[in-house]
Design goal:
Length: 396
């Protein structure tokens, strides 16, 4: 039976990037996945346009028990590596706000270009393979599948996490890590909408979108907020969800770029509070934020207490989400394989030589803005290079 230099589990962003990096350096590589097409999440990312990197990426854009872990891989893989790759494959891209880079036409182009690059370097595909288990004996890894065993001198686990299961995501990567003695930082849904408690003050505003600031766990994010049937979503909420823990209150500022007291002062004494606020916020939101008795007062009638109450409701609206919408609606999995057990330079396990973990399966969670795909490429490349260097040193 063929023994591959590297068997990579997961033909997603990280697995494919690792595969072509190692194969381009002469290694025999096999990519195994239960999906019928590789790169499903690349194809659906960013609404089909895929926010593939961010020009301002630094370690501060990631949540992990060890915030320094990502530094080495990031230092060796800049956003310009991706720009160069896209340019080489004639894939048009554009920069959007906050230095986010997106495909201009479709993320299918990027997924297909990576797939083609793997094939060009001789990567062998084992798609539609259900994996039933992994064993390691005499320095060889054996992957048991419904189409027979696959053997490799090295094994890369690039299986992502359980978020967004409708794209084929599972927790199998975490289970393999546990099998080989790795600790798992408890997985949680990240970049997910919040479900709000039944009967909360702003219920029934579904469809309204406003710019807002959310303070969550000592971090502040400002972006658009969208009311949904069950709670709130939008970029600002997805950001906050990465820092949120159960029962933690969040503080929302619905007018992040002005001060309500100043606006009222400038409006003069005659207009109703409702009229002044209606110029700044959607009427239905104003009705949810303020009791009618306060909204129907003229500005001149407001007491100090009224003004404080108004300021608190508009600028510091405090609420405790019931929960996030869960793994089904989460764009990424927070937590994962504890980075304590992994080399930050090579992504190799410190417990078992030849075993590697890359991408989202690790306890590395990027904020919204292209950071998760960037991590998938960067960690995939670090492992691909390390595999090639290790093969070289064995030959020498
Ligand atoms: C809707 C959505 C939009 C997103 N948009 C963006 C964005 O614009 N920018 C950004 O940076 N990030 C985005 N992300 C996150 C990003 O897609 C992921 O973080 C990234 O794809 C992780 O790469 P990975 O290679 O680690 O895992 P994945 O890309 O998830 O790849 C894992 C692979 O493993 C396979 N697999 C899993 N379990 C098994 C099993 N048991 N047996 C066999 N195969 C298995 C899967 O089929 C998959 O091919 C988005 C995610 C979602 C869900």
């Amino acid at each position: 039976m063929n023994i591959f230099d590297a068997v990579i589990l997961g033909a997603g962003a990280s697995g494919m990037w690792c595969a072509h990096t190692a194969a381009a350096r002469g290694l025999s590589v096999c990519l195994v996945d239960h999906a019928k097409r590789p790169g499903k999440k690349i194809r659906i990312a960013g609404g089909g346009k895929c926010n593939f990197t961010n020009l301002e990426v630094t370690h501060a854009d990631y949540v992990s028990r060890n915030p320094h872990f990502v530094k080495s891989a990031l230092a060796r893989f800049s956003p310009w590596h991706m720009v160069e790759f896209l340019s080489k494959h004639d894939i048009a891209w554009e920069e959007r706000e906050h230095s986010q880079l997106f495909c201009q036409r479709s993320s299918d182009e990027l997924a297909t270009a990576i797939e083609d690059t793997c094939s060009m370097h001789g990567v062998e595909w084992r798609l539609r393979h259900a994996i039933s288990g992994i064993t390691h004996t005499d320095g060889l890894f054996t992957v048991a599948t419904d189409n027979g065993p696959i053997k490799g001198r090295n094994l890369v686990v690039a299986l992502g996490g359980p978020a967004w299961p409708q794209a084929g995501a599972t927790d199998f990567g975490h289970r393999i890590a546990k099998q080989f003695g790795h600790a798992i930082v408890a997985p949680y849904p990240a970049l997910a909408p919040f479900a709000m408690p039944k009967g909360w003050a702003l219920e029934g505003l579904s469809g309204i979108a406003v710019p807002a600031t959310i303070e969550c766990g000592e971090k502040r994010f400002t972006e658009n907020l969208l009311f949904t049937h069950t709670g709130i979503s939008g970029p600002v909420v997805l950001h906050a969800s990465c820092r949120w823990k159960k029962d933690m209150p969040i503080v929302i500022d619905f007018l992040p770029s002005s001060q309500i007291e100043q606006e009222l002062k400038e409006a003069g004494g005659k207009p109703l509070v409702r009229t002044v606020l209606g110029r700044l916020l959607p009427d239905r939101l104003v009705a949810g934020l303020l009791p009618a008795a306060l909204a129907d007062k003229q500005v001149a009638q407001l007491s100090r207490q009224d003004l404080d109450h108004l300021t608190q409701r508009v600028h510091s609206f405090t609420v405790t989400p019931a929960r996030t919408e869960g793994m089904k609606r989460a764009e990424v999995t927070g937590g994962g394989v504890d980075t304590d057990g992994i080399s930050s330079k090579t992504m190799e396990s410190k417990r078992l030589k030849g075993l590697y973990f890359t991408g989202e399966v690790l306890d590395v969670t990027g904020q919204l803005g292209g950071f998760n795909l960037h991590w998938a490429w960067a960690s995939g490349q670090a492992a691909g290079i390390a595999l090639a260097e290790s093969a070289e040193s064995i030959k020498a």
